[in-house]
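Researcher: I'd like a structural prediction for the single chain below. Treat it as a standalone chain; there are no partners to consider.
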Amino acid sequence: MNSSSSAPRYQRNFGLDLLRSIAICVVLMNHGYLGFFVSTGLSKWEGWRAALSACAVFSIEWLFVLSGYLIGSMMIRSFETRGGWWASARDFWLRRWFRTIPNYYLFLLLNAVIAWWGIEEGRFAWSFAVFSQNLAWAQTKPYFFAEAWSLALDEWFYFLMPLLLGGVALVRRMERRQLFWAVALLLIAIPTVLRTVVTPSAHFFEWDDDIRRVTLMHLDATGWGVAAAILNRWHPGWWTRWQGAKALLGLALTLGAAAAMFYFMRVDWRGFAGGRFNDLALIVAPGVGTVLILPWLSGHQPDARWGRWLAARIGDYSYSVYLCHFPLMLLMIHALKLWGGALGPIVGWVVLAWLLGVLAVSALVFHGFEKPVSDLRERFTRRVQAGPFSAQPSA
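Model: Treating it as a single chain, here is the predicted structure.
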């Protein structure tokens, strides 16, 4: 996911870097299992293995909420310090697009080449160039650049956030705090309502295709992150009080959603409220849970410098990790098929080589392309910090 920020050391927040790092590691473990074990026939996606794999989808919810929190805090700071809407929106869009789009197009091209070679089943479509492949509909199968669905959701969030702020401000004059709350509630309410009017999903894969991966059905995950940024900035009392208790409640909500997912996968997907519960709670519960955890998580800084360094590096590389891990997996599986030997005896070494390759390629792409290109934005825009606000009175 593209929520990381290459910020100066004084801006780094260990808790947020840790959450991003854990999320991307869960993504790697699940995709590694699906790619090297399930797709090769070494394991069957059934029973408790399928249920546990399905629970891995909650790691993406953490990244969406984190993205909403960081972008929300950035927009709040921008609108508090710039003279008008256009100046803030222009700087925000340029900084985000310099940060995310060049790397995305680089790997879109790579995936197109892999598909042309016949290594990937899906085929390139121009909808991917404008992030509309899953805007209000399920993505065409067989999947091409399957992991890009979440990147498209993020990009639409980046595009819509300033527009919603400007649109709401035109409709009704209100103080800044009320304006941001109105936008956050719109981001949360519209997708949630949409999920209540569509036909409930009959099974996990239908839910995954028609609900989870559809941008307009899932934007509320970023909206919860914006709500967290608002609470941090304008409700410091709520943010600082009972952080441990809120974190435990948030953890309980997240684990409860995982337990529900595990149960529905093992017993009956439509066993409660005809499947409607799944369309709502399996997205809302981990989002709200992450918001409750953020105050405690963002306030902790370990003494071990190596821990801070490691979390920061994984945070820096996370976008490139997300983009490169699937193409590298497809290329390795294709090479193994050409080799023709038995995968089982060496699968552990293959997975280790893949992980090391992902790390090496991500570092190379980050330092050789992603960061140099994103640094060009400093010529045209003003840096705005993303991340936690210090304790301050509401304004």
